[in-house]
Write a sequence for this structure.
C-alpha cells in the first residue's frame, strides 16, 4: 500500500518524465523541420498565396464610420479645440509672476516647501530658456486632456466595480488599450478629428484611460463589506452609499489613477507633436529631427520638470491635506508668518461672508462659517494674494513677459560636436559590436537567414524557418503557462504571418514583427545583464541601495522620450541609439525587484545554509537566487514591457520594425497598417507577460510546497 509521500513522489516523477519527454519531442520536431526546410522545401517565408490581408479591410471600415458619424466627430472636434484654445489664451493672459507664485503656494499647500522650491525652479527654467509660451501651451493641452479622461474613466470604473460581468467584459479591452503603442492611436485620431488639439486629446484619452478605470474600480472594491453594511443598516440607498461611503474611502486609489493618467498624458507630449500639437513636445521633436541637441534638451528638461512637479503635487494630494502639510513646515519662518497672517485674513473673510448672509437672510452664521475658513485659511489667503498680484499687473505695473533669458543650446550643440570628435572611436566600436554581433545575428536567425557574424559565415546553419518559430514559441508558452497561452501564441504568430504583404502598406508583417522581436530580445538581454548585478549588489549592500534608490526614482519619473536625447548626443541617429536608449530606460524594474526578491529571503534559511558551511557566494547562488527567482522574473517581465514601449518610441531616431511602420502609416494616414503593426506589439507584450507570469506562479507554488 502506497503512503502519501510515495504517491506524491510518484506523481512528481511522472510529471518530470512527462516534461522531459515533451522537451525531447520538441527538440526532435524542431530539428526535423530544420532538415525539411534545408533539404526539401524552403520555409523561410510564409506562403504568399495563402495570405489574408486583414489590414487592408480596416481602412474601408473607418471610411464608413467617418461618413456616417462625420457630424458627431466635427462637433467633438470643434468643442475640444474651443476649450483648448480658450484655456491656453487664459494662461497666456495671466502674468508670469501670478503663475509662478500660484504654483509655489499650491506646492506648499499640497507637498511642502521642498516641492514648492523645485516648482519655482522648474517654471523659472522654462522662462529663462524662452519656452514660457510653449510650456503654457502644453499645460493647456494636458489639463483639458486629463479632465476629459477623468470625466470618462471614473463613471466606467464605478460601473466596473458594481458589475463583475462588466468588469470581465472590459478587462481584455483595457489590456489592449494599455499595451497598444501610442503611435497606433495617432492615425485613427487624425483621420477622424484632423490635425491639432482634438486629435491629441482623443489619442491620449484612449492611451491613458485604462489606469483611471482600473484604479477607480480597485479602490471601490477594496472598501470593506462591513462598512457598506453599516451604511445600509442606517437606511442609505445604493447611490448614497456610493457617494458618501465608497467614493470617499476609495479616493486615494482614484487619485493614484489620476496620477498615472497625468504621467501617461505627459509621456505622449512629443509624439502628439507629430499630429500638430504644439508646446514643448514640438521643440523636442524639432531638435531631434535637426540634430540640434541643445533645443531638444531644453524642451526635454521642460517636460521633465512638468512631470516631476505634477507627480509630486498629485502624490501630495493623495497623502495629505494642505492643513497638515502647513503644520509640518513650521521650521520655515516666512511660511510660519504667512500662516499666521492667513488666519487673520480667514477670520476677516468669514466675518464678511457672515455679514452678507445676515443682511440677506437675517440669520447669524458666524459660528458655522468661521471654522471652515480657518480650516482652509492658507487656501483663501493664497487666492487673495494672487488677486492682489493680478490687480497690480492690470492697474499699477505691467509685469510683462518673463524678464530674464539664459539659453544654453549653443553650448550643448558645441559639447555634442566635441563628444562626437573625442569619443567617436569608442561609440563607433560599441555601435559596431551591438549591431554586427547581437542585433543582426538575432534578426537573421528569426528571418531564416544565416545568423553567423562575418568571421563565421562559413557555418552551414541557415536560420530558423517560420514553422520552427511557431512550434517552438507555442511549445515554450505551453510549458511555461499552460495550453491556453500556447494556443494563443500559435494563433497569434499564424495571424501575423498570413497577413502577407498588405496591399497599401507594402511591407511584410512577419518580417517586420521578427525584426522587432529581435530588437526586444537583444535589448532585454542587455538590460538584464546590467540590472541583475546591480540589483544583487543593492540587496547585499545597504549603502549601495541608498545611493542607487534616488537614481532609479529619477529614471522612472523621466518621460520615455527624454532618454533619446543623451544617447543621440553620443551615438547619433540610428538603430543602435534606439537600442541603447531602450536598455537604459528599461533597467529600473529589474534592479528593484531583484533587490526586493533577494532581501525577502528568510534570514533563517540563510543562517541554516551558513551553519552548514556554505560560503557567501554559495548562499547567493544556491539559496537566495533560487528563492528570489519569482520576484526576479517579474522584474524581467516589467523590463520586457518597458522595452516594447521604448522600441516603438525609438522609431523617431531610426529604429526599424513595427514602430517604423506605425510612423510611416501615420504619414500616409493608413489606419489598417498602423493598427496592424500596433496589434503586433500588443501580441508580443501579452504573450511574454502571460508566459513569464505563468512560469513565476508555478515557481512560487513550488517554493511554497518546499517550504
Amino acid at each position: 500500500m502506497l503512503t502519501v509521500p510515495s504517491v506524491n513522489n510518484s506523481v512528481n516523477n511522472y510529471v518530470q518524465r512527462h516534461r522531459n519527454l515533451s522537451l525531447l519531442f520538441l527538440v526532435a520536431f524542431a530539428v526535423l523541420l530544420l532538415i525539411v526546410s534545408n533539404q526539401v522545401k524552403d520555409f523561410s517565408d510564409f506562403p504568399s498565396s495563402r495570405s489574408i490581408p486583414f489590414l487592408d479591410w480596416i481602412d474601408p471600415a473607418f471610411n464608413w464610420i467617418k461618413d456616417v458619424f462625420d457630424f458627431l466627430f466635427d462637433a467633438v472636434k470643434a468643442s475640444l479645440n474651443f476649450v483648448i484654445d480658450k484655456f491656453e489664451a487664459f494662461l497666456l493672459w495671466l502674468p508670469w509672476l501670478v503663475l509662478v507664485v500660484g504654483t509655489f503656494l499650491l506646492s506648499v499647500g499640497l507637498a511642502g516647501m521642498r516641492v514648492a522650491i523645485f516648482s519655482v525652479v522648474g517654471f523659472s527654467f522654462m522662462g529663462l530658456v524662452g519656452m514660457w509660451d510653449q510650456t503654457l501651451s502644453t499645460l493647456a493641452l494636458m489639463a483639458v486632456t486629463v479632465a476629459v479622461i477623468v470625466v470618462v474613466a471614473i463613471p466606467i470604473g464605478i460601473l466596473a466595480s458594481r458589475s463583475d460581468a462588466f468588469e470581465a467584459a472590459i478587462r481584455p479591452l483595457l489590456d489592449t488599450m494599455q499595451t497598444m503603442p501610442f503611435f497606433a492611436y495617432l492615425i485613427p485620431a487624425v483621420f477622424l478629428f484632423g490635425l491639432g488639439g482634438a486629435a491629441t486629446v482623443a489619442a491620449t484619452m484612449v492611451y491613458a484611460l485604462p489606469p483611471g478605470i482600473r484604479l477607480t474600480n480597485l479602490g471601490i472594491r477594496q472598501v470593506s463589506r462591513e462598512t457598506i453594511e453599516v451604511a445600509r443598516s442606517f437606511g442609505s440607498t445604493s447611490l448614497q452609499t456610493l457617494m458618501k461611503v465608497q467614493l470617499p474611502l476609495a479616493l486615494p486609489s482614484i487619485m493614484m489613477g489620476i496620477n498615472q493618467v497625468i504621467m501617461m498624458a505627459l509621456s505622449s507630449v512629443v509624439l502628439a507633436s507629430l499630429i500638430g500639437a504644439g508646446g514643448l513636445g514640438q521643440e523636442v521633436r524639432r531638435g531631434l529631427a535637426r540634430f540640434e541637441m541643445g533645443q531638444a534638451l531644453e524642451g526635454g528638461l521642460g517636460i521633465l520638470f512638468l512631470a516631476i512637479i505634477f507627480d509630486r503635487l498629485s502624490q501630495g494630494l493623495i497623502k495629505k491635506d494642505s492643513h497638515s502639510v502647513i503644520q509640518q513646515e513650521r521650521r520655515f519662518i516666512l511660511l510660519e508668518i504667512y500662516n499666521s497672517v492667513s488666519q487673520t485674513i480667514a477670520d476677516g473673510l468669514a466675518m464678511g461672508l457672515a455679514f452678507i448672509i445676515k443682511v440677506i437672510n437675517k440669520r447669524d452664521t458666524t459660528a458655522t462659517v468661521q471654522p471652515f475658513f480657518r480650516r482652509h485659511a492658507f487656501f483663501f489667503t493664497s487666492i487673495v494674494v494672487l488677486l492682489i498680484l493680478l490687480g497690480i499687473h492690470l492697474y499699477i505695473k505691467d509685469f510683462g513677459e518673463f524678464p530674464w533669458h539664459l539659453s544654453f543650446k549653443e553650448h550643448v550643440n558645441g559639447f555634442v560636436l566635441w563628444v562626437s570628435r573625442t569619443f567617436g572611436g569608442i561609440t563607433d566600436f560599441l555601435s559596431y559590436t551591438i549591431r554586427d554581433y547581437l542585433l543582426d545575428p538575432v534578426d537573421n536567425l528569426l528571418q531564416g537567414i544565416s545568423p553567423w557574424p562575418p568571421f563565421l559565415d562559413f557555418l552551414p546553419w541557415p536560420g530558423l524557418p517560420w514553422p520552427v518559430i511557431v512550434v517552438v514559441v507555442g511549445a515554450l508558452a505551453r510549458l511555461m503557462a499552460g495550453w491556453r497561452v500556447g494556443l494563443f501564441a500559435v494563433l497569434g504568430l499564424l495571424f501575423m504571418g498570413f497577413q502577407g504583404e498588405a496591399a497599401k502598406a507594402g511591407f511584410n508583417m512577419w518580417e517586420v514583427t521578427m525584426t522587432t522581436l529581435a530588437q526586444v530580445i537583444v535589448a532585454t538581454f542587455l538590460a538584464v545583464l546590467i540590472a541583475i548585478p546591480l540589483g544583487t549588489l543593492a540587496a547585499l549592500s545597504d549603502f549601495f541601495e541608498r545611493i542607487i534608490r534616488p537614481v532609479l526614482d529619477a529614471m522612472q519619473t523621466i518621460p520615455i522620450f527624454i532618454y533619446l536625447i543623451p544617447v543621440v548626443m553620443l551615438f547619433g541617429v540610428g538603430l543602435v541609439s534606439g537600442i541603447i536608449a531602450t536598455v537604459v530606460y528599461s533597467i529600473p524594474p529589474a534592479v528593484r525587484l531583484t533587490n526586493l526578491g533577494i532581501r525577502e529571503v528568510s534570514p533563517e534559511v540563510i543562517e541554516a545554509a551558513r551553519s552548514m558551511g556554505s560560503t557567501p557566494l554559495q548562499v547567493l547562488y544556491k539559496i537566495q537566487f533560487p528563492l528570489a527567482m519569482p520576484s526576479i522574473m517579474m522584474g524581467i517581465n516589467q523590463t520586457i514591457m518597458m522595452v516594447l514601449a521604448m522600441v516603438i518610441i525609438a522609431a523617431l531616431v531610426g529604429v526599424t520594425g513595427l514602430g517604423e511602420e506605425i510612423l510611416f502609416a501615420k504619414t500616409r494616414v493608413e489606419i489598417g497598417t498602423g493598427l496592424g503593426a500596433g496589434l503586433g506589439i500588443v501580441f508580443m507584450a501579452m504573450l511574454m507577460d502571460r508566459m513569464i507570469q505563468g512560469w513565476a506562479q508555478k515557481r512560487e507554488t513550488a517554493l511554497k510546497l518546499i517550504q
Residues 4-39 form the longest helix (36 residues). Residues 1-18 have pLDDT under 50 and may be disordered. The radius of gyration is 29 Å. Residues 573 and 653 are 5 Å apart (CA to CA).
